[in-house]
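Hi L., both proteins are below.
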Amino acid sequence: MAKEFSRQHEVVYYECDMNGNMTLPTVISLAIQVSETQSNELNRGSEYIHQHGVTWILTNYHLEITRLPKVDEQIIVTTKAEEYNKYFCYRSFWIRTVSGEELVHIQAVFGLMNIETRKLSRVIDEIIAPFESQKITKIKRFGKLEKIVIGESLPYRVRFFDIDSNLHVNNAVYFHWILDVLGRDFLTSYVPKTITIRYDKEVEYGNEIASVVEKINQDQAMCTRHAIMLHEETCCEAFIEWKELNK
């Protein structure tokens, strides 16, 4: 059975938005930080991974949000690398209150990228072994993301501080672009309930990208489709189901 790993965290004001909720980029960054801490304790940190000529990339997230953590709240972030196949690793995260109430459940899909060729590499059993993940043959998918039909967009430039130590845009930065295009009125009226996001192509320092959004009503729920575009190429896609704030 896969090894489980947890860390406690106190939510501080600068991790939250004007609604008093932890921002989604912070939720993602905190989850990844806990997984990296586990990897380091198992001697599978970045230095060890890079010795094999590869680095981790993230290809998909699926989030189910009961509610977002609040300012000054004590939370427990738990993770385990549950399964892997020839090319992908499947890791889950849970954010809970100290009393055990589940706030956020995240499913993530990771792969190993060859540092020189920037192409997907096969998963190396030696890297995965200490996590005690189950080896499977099935490729897991989170459902098809429908294309935007009629959208509105805002331009963004990839800044120096968007690039992390793996030398690519940190995956949490995409959440800034995806959400900011919705504007203040929307983001103070709705909070996300479920999110599915897929990363298709790297963007690089200095790129001028467009964050495109389409608002739709699906099964009587407010939903949004998103795309991060570099010229005519789709770099990232997402679908979010929303619920009204305080309901």
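That was the first. Here is the second:
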Amino acid sequence: MDSIALFDLTPATPPKPAAPSAPQRRAPLPLGELPVSSVPAAYDREHLFSPKEGTAEHISHRAGDVFGPLPRSSGEPKAWAIWWRTAASVPTPDFLGLKAGDDITVQLSTVSPGTVARTCRFGALVRIPLPQGPWADKPYEEMYVTRRNQFGHWYR
């Protein structure tokens, strides 16, 4: 007596070869670990950040490979502009392990996806896609992120 299978689990056609994929993304840094970075890195109360001058002396941190702690800015507008041009916005190879092209999540009022556009001593400039509509003059918004929370989302 022949048996009849109720379900045929063999594929009807052979599987297609996989299409060329996008460049491989690096695995995110595990929470609690300090990244190898061009700027100093600290981990405090489950948040990853780059300590600034005046703070770095008081906390345990990993020194940056290229830069020391970012100097404090002046409150006076002209001095602040000079600080931004000469210290804060100096390009870096990475910021706390983030590199241009990395896809991350950004903590706004909700969690949103974003892509790192560039990095500097101050932080990482991230482009967050915007929904299309008549009110949007460009397809994305840009913001700097400087910290990562315990859930792996970046924020300022």
